[in-house]
Amino acid sequence: GHEFWDTQPVPKIDDKIVESGPIENKTLEDVRKEPLTLPPAFEWIELDCNKSDELKEIYTLLYENYVEDDDNMFRFDYSPEFLKWALQPPGFLKEWHIGVRVVESKKLVGFISGIPATIRVEGKPITMVEINFLCVHKKLREKRLAPVLIKEVTRRVNLRNIWQAAYTAGVVLPKPVAICKYWHRSIKQQKLVEVGFSALPPKMSMASMVKLYRINDEMKHPLRPLTKEDVPSFRALLDEYLSKYKIAPEFATDEDVWHWFETRKDVITCYVKVDETTKKVTDAFSFYNLPSTIIGNAKHNTLKAAFSFYNVATTMSLTELVGDALVAAKKMDYDVYNCLDVFENSTFFKDLKFAIGDGDLQYYLYNYSTPTKKSSEIGLVLL
Ligand code: MYA
Ligand code: JJ1
Is there a smaller number of Cβ atoms within 10 Å at the N or the C end of the chain? Predict the structure, then answer.
């Protein structure tokens, strides 16, 4: 049983869902006006990502306590600049960047965040919050602090008259709308083997492995970084492309697109191909930078990973486009390129020599039931 999740407006694990819509309908009057009660040693705070010391506190909590792989060999290391980008899109609310401090020491021991987003579910745009970076300090685990953080963010979102959320997690909860797999493309073979990210196949030498995974030095197509001038046509391309998927974001303004796709060093990379005569964007790849701390390795401290974000191909195959993304990632010194089996991504895994990972990513909606989706019907990537 799920003591907490059983009380929430989410489908039960074995519900068979045939129609789409909200699970419950509430109004502002139903929403509690005071913050949830924390145990007396703790207090609620709002974190301001524009203050470098507060941003650094979030960074440090996550650096030491956030998501690890199943064997506790790697832990995500989201940089402060990345967190600022992820938490401050147009229309963000500081009141949704929620921390829990120890009253006496002022130490940050819990965090959860929300950002506003419009998500289309089977074509219908729904105003939602995207929840991410839920984290409880390792020393305070399994004390039911996570449900309090989740209820407090829910309350603050509800107070803004928003009743649905989207989130992803590596764990299975009631009830995934889709179960997706991570796939990985090796770039720096030797290092990946040395840190235990990949195993050298039994009958293979390092030299033949390096040869197998060789990547060109130059891109095959004339792609260059996205500029502000490209944004209106890129937004149109993206919007048209995303409308094919059963769950996908709506980038409502040029400002949104520029926020999410402007190249920011060590955060996000976005390259486009522009038609010479019409000046319209016809193709684009993007990936974000999410390194992991390598836990307890004498030789290497961090694994540099690029994560596939949004890719749209119209004048070349998706395989060729992502092939060029791999060229860019190699040039930028990444060790590995990671990708979910969302979108049409499964169509290029074999040709581009991806291998399946040992991690799943479950997609969830809060207070919205809709039939279970295949991973290829998902058009949403959360950070
Ligand atoms: S996913 C990333 C989550 N973070 C990590 O994995 C980092 C490392 N782990 C930790 O920091 C802790 O283990 C966490 C749990 C904080 C995850 N999502 O306090 P507890 C349920 C939702 O005793 P702890 C991301 O950020 C668990 O099933 N629920 O446990 C998206 C149990 O409930 P139940 C989770 O280990 C987050 C209860 O918590 C998760 O100390 C989306 C136990 O609580 C999880 N990842 O802390 C959040 N893990 O008894 C939901 C465990 O019922 C948002 N649990 O089984 C919902 C929408 C809200 C907004 C709505 C607005 C309309
Ligand atoms: O990165 C992941 N797995 C890797 C490393 C495994 C280390 C041992 N557990 C992996 N490697 C094998 C593939 C290899 C690739 C190169 C070529 C040869 C083969 O499988 C996994 C994903 O697969 N990552 C995680 O488990 C991290 C957590 C994922 C859940 C994220 C939840 C985020 C929530 C945000 O809201």
Answer: N
Are 143 and 234 within one domain? no
Asked if the ipTM is above 0.95, the reply is yes
Residues known to be catalytic:
132-134, 168, 383
Atom of ligand 1 nearest to the CA of 162: 63
In single-letter form, the type of residue at position 3 comes to E
Q: Would residue 115 count as lying in a domain?
A: yes
Q: What values do phi and psi take at 235, rounded to 5? A: -65, -40
68 lies in which domain range? 5-170
Q: Is the CB of 167 under 6 A from ligand 1?
A: yes
258 domain-assigned? yes
- What percentage of the chain has pLDDT greater than the value 70? 100
Mean pLDDT of 296-324: 98
Same domain, 340 and 200: yes
Per DSSP, 360 falls in state E
Q: Is pTM, for the whole model, over 0.90? A: yes
Residues 162 and 186 in one domain: no
Backbone angles phi, psi at 188, to 5 degrees: -110, 85
Q: Based on the domain organization, do 277 and 160 belong to the same domain?
A: no
Residue 382 included in any domain? no
Q: What percent of the chain has pLDDT over 90?
A: 99
Determine contact, residues 105/45, Cβ cutoff 8 Å: no
Q: Are 116 and 91 in contact (CB under 8 A)?
A: yes
Looking at the fold, whether 136 and 255 belong to one and the same domain comes out as no
* Closest-CA residue to 260 (of 212, 226, 297): 226
Q: DSSP for 274-297?
A: E-TTT--EEEEEEEEE--EEETT-
Do 285 and 367 belong together in one domain? yes
Give one DSSP letter per residue of 109-132, joined into a string.
EEEEEEEEEEEEETTEEEEEEEEE
Q: Is the pLDDT of residue 355 over 90?
A: yes
- What's the pLDDT tens digit per position in 135-170? 999 999 999 999 999 999 999 999 999 999 999 999
Flag whether pLDDT at 367 surpasses 90.
yes
Q: Calculate how far, in angstroms, residue 358's C-alpha sits from the geometric centre of ligand 2.
A: 5
User: How far does residue 146's CA lie from ligand 1's centre (Å)?
Assistant: 5
